[in-house]
Design goal:
Distance between the termini: 70 Å
Oligomer: single chain
CATH architecture of the largest domain: 2-Layer Sandwich
Order of helices and strands: HHHHEEEE
Number of helices: 4
Number of strands: 4
Largest sheet: 4 strands, antiparallel
Number of domains: 2
CATH class of the largest domain: Alpha Beta
CATH topology of the largest domain: Beta-lactamase Inhibitory Protein, Chain:B, domain 1
Shape: elongated
Structural class: alpha+beta
Radius of gyration: 24 Å
Strand content: 15-25%
Length: 129
């Protein structure tokens, strides 16, 4: 009987320590999955569009997109998710890159307003199409 009680306490301790260990490992994994990341073209291109918001702070610190040519933006961020053109022409008015899926509110997008192939404005907004 005494031996069984000792085994039960030992098994209980193993379960408790095992649970703490699993919680710590999961916490580290989640923290690593959602921490801000340093922007690089390679990482941006291969990342899931729903998690690209993790790169935005660093991207905005590294690049002042106002005044950049549209071709430079294409080189940095790749093809946009959506392009707005002037009605009846091929003249591009804005680019949108999906950066976060907010489920209920829709996608957050990085919108770049373009005039004569030069970026004149940049905002993060909710997709309206």
């Amino acid at each position: 009987m005494r031996h069984t009680k000792k085994n039960m306490h030992r098994n209980l301790l193993i379960c408790v320590y095992g649970f703490y260990f699993v919680c710590i490992v999961c916490g580290i994994f989640l923290w690593n999955s959602y921490r801000e990341r340093s922007f690089s073209q390679k990482e941006w291109m291969k990342s899931d569009p729903a998690k690209r918001y993790l790169y935005m702070d660093d991207f905005k610190e590294k690049y002042n997109v106002i005044g950049m040519y549209r071709s430079e933006i294409d080189d940095l961020l790749g093809s946009p998710t959506w392009t707005e053109t002037e009605r009846g022409t091929d003249k591009i008015l804005s680019y949108e890159y999906r950066i976060k899926d907010t489920l209920l509110a829709g996608w957050k997008v990085y919108q770049l307003r373009v005039q004569d192939d030069i970026v004149v404005g940049a905002i993060i907004t909710v997709e309206d199409w």
